[in-house]
Amino acid sequence: MNEKKIRTSEHPVTKEEALRSVSSRSSNVHIDKSEAISLYKTMLRIRYFELAVEKALENGEFHGTTHLYNGQEAVAVGVCSELRTGDMITSTHRGHGHSIAMGASVRKMMAEIYGKATGYSKGKGGSMHIADVAGGNLGSNGIVGGGIPIAVGAALSAQMQRKEHVTICFFGDGATNEGSFHESLNLASIWNVPVVFVCENNKYGMSSSIDVMTNITDLSKRADAYGISGITIDGNDVLQVKQTARQAIEHARFGGGPTLIEAKTYRYKGHSRSDKQVYRSEREVAAYKKRDPIELFERSLLEGNILDESNIVTMKDIVKEEINDAVTFARESEEPTECELYRDVYA
Amino acid sequence: MNEKKIRTSEHPVTKEEALRSVSSRSSNVHIDKSEAISLYKTMLRIRYFELAVEKALENGEFHGTTHLYNGQEAVAVGVCSELRTGDMITSTHRGHGHSIAMGASVRKMMAEIYGKATGYSKGKGGSMHIADVAGGNLGSNGIVGGGIPIAVGAALSAQMQRKEHVTICFFGDGATNEGSFHESLNLASIWNVPVVFVCENNKYGMSSSIDVMTNITDLSKRADAYGISGITIDGNDVLQVKQTARQAIEHARFGGGPTLIEAKTYRYKGHSRSDKQVYRSEREVAAYKKRDPIELFERSLLEGNILDESNIVTMKDIVKEEINDAVTFARESEEPTECELYRDVYA
Amino acid sequence: MRTITYREAIREALQYKLEDDERVFLLGEDIGIYGGAFGVTKGLLEQFGTERVRDTPISELGITGVAVGAALTGMRPIVDIQFSDFLTLALDQIVNQAAKIRYMFGGKASVPLVVRTPSGSGTGAAAQHSQSLEAWLAHIPGLKVVQPATAYDAKGLMIAAIEDGNPVIIYEHKLLYDKTGTVPGQPYRIPLGKADIKRQGTDITVVATGILVQRALQAAHILAQKGISVEVIDPRTLVPFDEATVLESVRKTGRALVTHEAVERAGYGAEIASIIADKAFHALQAPVKRLGGKAVPIPNNKRLERKAVPQVEDVVTIVEKMMNFSITT
Amino acid sequence: MRTITYREAIREALQYKLEDDERVFLLGEDIGIYGGAFGVTKGLLEQFGTERVRDTPISELGITGVAVGAALTGMRPIVDIQFSDFLTLALDQIVNQAAKIRYMFGGKASVPLVVRTPSGSGTGAAAQHSQSLEAWLAHIPGLKVVQPATAYDAKGLMIAAIEDGNPVIIYEHKLLYDKTGTVPGQPYRIPLGKADIKRQGTDITVVATGILVQRALQAAHILAQKGISVEVIDPRTLVPFDEATVLESVRKTGRALVTHEAVERAGYGAEIASIIADKAFHALQAPVKRLGGKAVPIPNNKRLERKAVPQVEDVVTIVEKMMNFSITT
Ligand SMILES: Cc1ncc(C[n+]2csc(CCOP(=O)(O)OP(=O)(O)O)c2C)c(N)n1
Ligand SMILES: Cc1ncc(C[n+]2csc(CCOP(=O)(O)OP(=O)(O)O)c2C)c(N)n1
Ligand SMILES: [Mg+2]
Ligand SMILES: [Mg+2]
Question: Pick from C211, C202, C209: which is nearest to C285 by CA?
Fold first, then answer.
């Protein structure tokens, strides 16, 4: 875990290069067919979920804003596929992907986004506050960096309770400039708690390029300031993500302490509903889309004869249907009653 | 500025070693006699000032607490000796040394500590809030890490005003675990403002050893997380401090951006009035006192024939007299009138 | 006269001061090419460049502290905190540093700093993006606190705040950005500490702040049709607070309601109500009432969100009740 | 019964819960071998070890967030914030996270977290180490706010807070640590939300919190000799607030003074005064008065520091004035 893989993602590599690298990098990842299919399907589920959310937002079907995960699917899916029951995550404002990767019900998620009583938070949290504490998702968070110390606290619980549970802490590139990042990584390091920090570097914090907002090339370098391992990986390569996460999680689970993983990726949609995306070019977006994490994986599944075209069409249809069902469920669900306004303030 | 000097200060070196290293490390520092004497005298002034404050505190002559600088004199004096008119500093709760090194009036300082109307802040600030903004001291600060972004702001002013002023930002080892440290160093780096961060690593933040509170050996390593230079030096060697500060200040002044200097040193007294010092051994304190920054420098002045024993006795007497005068001044000064309570809340 | 939005009015004030005073500069997250989360600073980067319209990393404490340091050394920074909820991260610099530096340094320094920040609910952004915590800062000696409720006030108060020479916190309201009003093209100042009687009336005084000013005015309109004459007073600045204008009105009407969106418990309305109950004691024909936000986090669901804070109909209802109150009951 | 200090009473509560409940642990700066800045945790490290009496780096936001995460996952952390002024650095975690998590997650989580912190002036520590900002947290739905004024209350409230299951902020007062009182050796609980009538009286109700409870009692003693019978009520918890006990008293006496050390402007006293002025309107024979801290930062100079906040003689003076007030003047 100590060597750093430095990768500049200024210019996305071509599809061909990407594929070659996928297979080569993934050569030491042994996953069986059903696991591969599960990864693929979960990525699809996230993608179609987000597309449905986007459409609903455009149609004014729900109240509030949302931050879409399209383009980053390989990170959530690769990491969470390595978790066991009892493991936990903390998530961010851009949290739908993490929830789905943790196995959340897309019905309850969609209902929550629609502000309905059947949602995870009875419609009181909305898109930015989906959580399933019992299921290990300690919550998305509206405060950039807000979840980082919370993850360290969850890991501390596991340590003090003598449980072998690991906590994954997801956050964006922009969050690494918050004081909470610094304080939390230091705490995790000195207490050696079982947490893995996963920084999804999608190049931007809202409109700000991380290249302008920091003076370093790889955010994983910040690990050195805390005496922990840091590694930068291709966040669009689900198997590379999975492989790296596996090592870091194992390391954490058995007393090796925290790791900082920087997964370089890209967000396809605007930051949130109000974003006109004037800070980046359509060309840039198009170039990144050529390295779409789902397409990359799809191709290697086809090439490896794990799936054929018809399998894929079927799976997409199934997932789309699942998402349509979630939308219908959300639409048809009841709103919370007025007395919900006053409930759940105190235990 | 890019090479790192790694020095472990677990076991203080012997006097003999220390002296050898002083002269060798200082070999490339060219200072004339009057400058050397001035450095020495300023260190003495700080030492005697603090001893007087300690005595006054023990006698209950003033209200409030205080944090003494004894043992760290070489840092403030070495750094501030390199400043020009217009340059600025931000200081900490342990700020008397910085003030004196900036040429503050010991009368006004002592009066402030005594809470008198003739003090720098008319007795409203006390020991922890001595400032002389017009003279370049932007203030000591009761909040650990509180002064760090303020220093960056002062440096930004200089940059925007197209002035060649440099700001020195003093803080302790403990402060490097505050979020403000992280955010501020990042801001200073990306904006390339003329600031020099001086971390006085005196091994403890109150009762906590920095070796326990971080997982790294040299705090200067944290500079890497911001893409700036970091260097660890012997903070008890005034010439080494001076030499390092000179380079960093010049670098900053002419557009080279910030540097993080970690000056390893030791505090002789308890953290503040309430400290029973159970967290460290008398042996440790005694060992560090063998490398007293004033004695070290005194010896090299003697060996270099810059001063003789009688000069030293005379100088000590002069400085003691100056401090006695400051105490008398403070004692005899008036208290602020009651209407001062309501003044200075707004401009 | 010209009609522009509240958003444009603020932008004009910023633009004017950026042109007028080279010490003035803006810093904040996404205020440059993005134009700020609510579009307030749109176009200013193009006009004034990246040095004076300075995009920052996501470091609320750091950027506020930088502004304090810059203000202390001759600049006039204006910090944009993207949502007022994020002020929770910057309070050391605002409360322990900016507010106290002048006093702690015996008057030998000043911190001419403006913090602009949008507050309030109504956008479905839920509990962490919808708070109204202006009472917090109004509690702190050394700060001034401004809450413009109209486009006209926004421009005049913003210019006055930038020129004030003290740390001033300006709470803008998200739902007001699109509201229009007549605003002179020329710069003008509204003194901090001068309330505005937004509507004259004789039966009851409604002291309203922020978004509740608009709602109180709508309620007053409805109540007028029911024969109740409501005087609506907008303090505009919580600190300094224009006690005289409020007390004069209550002495005239004999009844007072204080209303704001912020949670009622320990909100600034308690301060205003306490002042009235004390200093207009003899004039009061009914108890001073408060109408503030419920003691709940702001929920995402639209219907619940609306119920969490006072709406026009709530003002109408409570005023009617208060008018039915008789001192002899 | 035994007499111990307020400091020891708190320590006993912590010790009891550390023994009683393995989920409980302490974290904070210098709480281990140093025993905390005010000696409260002295000896606990030796008894419970470094894991459960956990010294932390100087990272207020981080350690509070860690406590939130630990509370969310089955532990019962107690965070020590060395001076309440430093809470300004931790408020995101307290206000945006701890207070709202349960609500935002639809009741499917809880954050049983205690934050202990010393507040108040009187030690000469000046503006950044002397504030009383309890009104801030009392403004936030989802938090409970406790202010023990005696050794007895400190122990019982601390145990109740640790067992409460919600985020509870406990404001201790620096000047009270050395004060003694009779305290049972056995553990006991004082329910959060139950005021205490610290002295019975018939002429006037003084609602006092924190350090002002002691001062109000001393004032009541002096006033008794002048023939004025003062009832002193200590709410003990600001949230929940025991309205009934306060109102009952005021309905009996007809006069009410609310006093605390915190800055009067927008202090919690405004909340209490507003409630009284509204709900005891008919009973009031004089306006409800507030006596709080002056609107200034706390100065270092001892004489000025004393003048900045209400002292015994100030309580005496204002009560005498209030007793001279006649409804017909
Ligand atoms: C403390 C805080 N500051 C600012 C914001 C507004 N904001 C929301 S998301 C965001 C950008 C975050 O960037 P990053 O961490 O890279 O995550 P990404 O959006 O790219 O997933 C900003 C500035 C916030 N929610 N919280
Ligand atoms: C934000 C904040 N947290 C805690 C404290 C209490 N405190 C004052 S000084 C100090 C130790 C500081 O250590 P360091 O930065 O190493 O400076 P040193 O005292 O060694 O000079 C602490 C914990 C404070 N003043 N401010
Ligand atoms: Mg990002
Ligand atoms: Mg130190």
Answer: C202
**How long a stretch of residues is chain A?**
347
The fourth-level CATH superfamily of domain B15-332 is Thiamin diphosphate (ThDP)-binding fold, Pyr/PP domains (3.40.50.970)
The CA dihedral of A13, A19, A24, A30, to the nearest 10 degrees, is 130
Q: Which residue of D has its CA nearest to B206?
A: D30
| Secondary structure of chain B in HEC code, one letter for each residue | CCCCCCCCCCCCCCHHHHHHHHHHHHHHCCCCHHHHHHHHHHHHHHHHHHHHHHHHHHCCCCCCCCCCCCCCHHHHHHHHCCCCCCCEEECCCCCHHHHHHCCCCHHHHHHHHCCCCCCCCCCCCCHHHCCEHHHCECCCCCCCCCHHHHHHHHHHHHHHCCCCCCEEEEEECHHHHCHHHHHHHHHHHHHCCCEEEEEEECCEECCEEHHHHCCCCCHHHHHHHHCCEEEEEECCCHHHHHHHHHHHHHHHHCCCCCEEEEEECCCCCCCCCCCCCCCCCHHHHHHHHCCCHHHHHHHHHHHCCCCCHHHHHHHHHHHHHHHHHHHHHHHHCCCCCHHHHCCCCCC
Phi, psi of B246 (to 5 degrees): -55, -50
CB-CB neighbors (< 8 A) of B225 in chain A: 216, 221-222, 224-225
What Å distances lie between residue B169 and A181, B95, C157, CA to CA?
22, 12, 35
- Residues that place a CB less than 5 A from ion ligand 4: B 172-174, 202, 205
Both structure tokens of D268: 């919690």
Establish whether the linkage from the previous residue to C235 is cis, with ω within 30° of 0: no
CA–CA distances in Å: residue C290 to residues C260, C266, C314: 8, 11, 11
Give residue-wise pLDDT tens across range C230-254.
999 999 999 999 999 999 999 999 9
The phi and psi torsions of C208 (rounded to 5 degrees) equal -130, 145
Between CA C266 and CA C269, with CA C267 as vertex, the angle to 5 degrees is: 115
Which amino acid appears at position B5 of this protein? K
Tokens 């010439």 belong to B239
Maximum alpha-carbon separation in chain B: 57
For C116-156, write each residue's pLDDT tens digit.
Answer: 999 999 999 999 999 999 999 999 999 999 999 999 999 99
pLDDT tens per residue across span D76-98 = 999 999 999 999 999 999 999 99
Give the pLDDT score at A273. 84
C-alpha pair distances (Å), C207 with each of A131, B213, C147, C269, D271: 40, 52, 13, 9, 16
Determine the distance from the C-alpha atom of residue C272 to the mean position of all C-alpha atoms in its chain, rounded to a whole number: 15
User: A177 and C301: CB-CB below 8 Å?
Assistant: no
CA D156 to chain A, closest CA, distance in angstroms equals 20
Separation CA B185–CA B207 (nearest Å): 26
Instruction: Give the separation between CA D324 and CA D329, rounded to whole angstroms.
Output: 10
Distance CA(D198)–CA(B307), nearest Å, equals 70
Q: Which two tokens stand for residue B122?
A: 């008319």
Protein residue closest via CA to atom 19 of ligand 2: B205
Q: Answer yes or no: is the C-beta of B71 below 6 A from any ligand 2 atom.
A: no
- D234: tokens are 């200590």
* Partners of D180 in the β-ladder: D5
* CA of C58 relative to ligand 4 center, distance in Å: 28
DSSP run (H or E) holding D306: helix D302-308
Check pLDDT > 50 for residue A6. Answer: no
Q: What is the pTM of this model?
A: 0.96
What type of residue sits at position A243?
Q
Residue D235 φ/ψ, nearest 5 degrees: -65, -25
| Alpha carbon of residue C153 to chain centroid | 10
Q: Return the closest-CA partner of residue B177 out of A177, D97, C92, D61.
A: D61
Contact B194, B165 (CB under 8 A): yes
Going across the sheet that includes D196-199, the strands are D196-199, D230-234, D204-208, D256-263, D289-293
